Amino acid sequence: MTDQQQQPAVPTRNGMPVLGLGTWENDDPAQCTESVANALDAGYRHVDTAQIYGNEAAVGEGIARSDVDRGDIFLATKVWIDELSPADVASSTRESLEKLGVNAVDLLYVHWPAGEYEPGETLPAFAELRDDGLIDRIGVSNFEPEHLDAATDALGEAPFANQVEMHPLLRQEELREYADANGVELVAYSPLARGEILDDPAIVDIAEKHGVSAAQVSLAWLRETGVTAIPKATGIDHIRDNLASVDLDLDDEDVEAIDALGRTDRQLNPDFGPDW
């Protein structure tokens, strides 16, 4: 059996692979390029970056270096808060595409509802980029229900996705209910709670029960909850371990144990963010 045949197949939902490679804080260009290329060659088909990460060029180099065709990759980036006026949305997105070395991205997010963000001005600029074929889908990030309502009013449709911090220690029940009711995909960043879940006794118990890593348990729980996860990984071992989560099926007892944790351990809460 070849390595390609052994790779887990990542399922998709509405055209988006439900496991992707996050690149936040992967700011060493050589390492970022290598991790993106390695992830794609291992079987990932979803890569997430952002203007503020400062690594779009390295991500693009990783895509170019891999053996995977661009058309098979779901690529997402985000517009930073000081680039959200209509003119800046257009110019900064074109700069992002140039750095990434692509003609278009599959998903473009508003990174935060902050800074220059004005729903009635920012989101029509995103829609114009979509009309021009520079982006395929419009997303938002770190939005609460009231922000999503305003975005929907401005677009005349719900955003495709809302990327938020989510993991077993921050289960985001309200946003999950909103997403289900309004047809919005949830994408989880920091899906391992920046390593906190790796030492949680309940998660560790479930991992030992299945003979897998705690990281795989967290990622499998997100997938089975209907959420796409984009864990950061740089080394090939972690890249492969996270990918193996798509083959892990949690049972009802596992899910109940995770849902019973009752913790709200938010890892990221900048001053300019929403009033959670």
Automatic annotation (TrEMBL):
GO terms for molecular function: oxidoreductase activity, acting on the CH-OH group of donors, NAD or NADP as acceptor. Residues 19-261 form the NADP-dependent oxidoreductase domain. Gene3D superfamilies: NADP-dependent oxidoreductase domain. SUPFAM superfamilies: NAD(P)-linked oxidoreductase. InterPro entries: AKR (IPR020471), Aldo/ket_reductase_CS (IPR018170), NAD(P)_OxRdtase_dom_sf (IPR036812), NADP_OxRdtase_dom (IPR023210). PROSITE patterns: ALDOKETO_REDUCTASE_1 (PS00798). Keywords: NADP, Oxidoreductase. It comes from the Archaea. Pfam families: Aldo_ket_red (PF00248). PANTHER family: 2,5-DIKETO-D-GLUCONIC ACID REDUCTASE, NADP-DEPENDENT OXIDOREDUCTASE DOMAIN-CONTAINING PROTEIN. Belongs to the aldo/keto reductase family. This is 2,5-diketo-D-gluconate reductase B. It comes from Halorubrum sodomense.
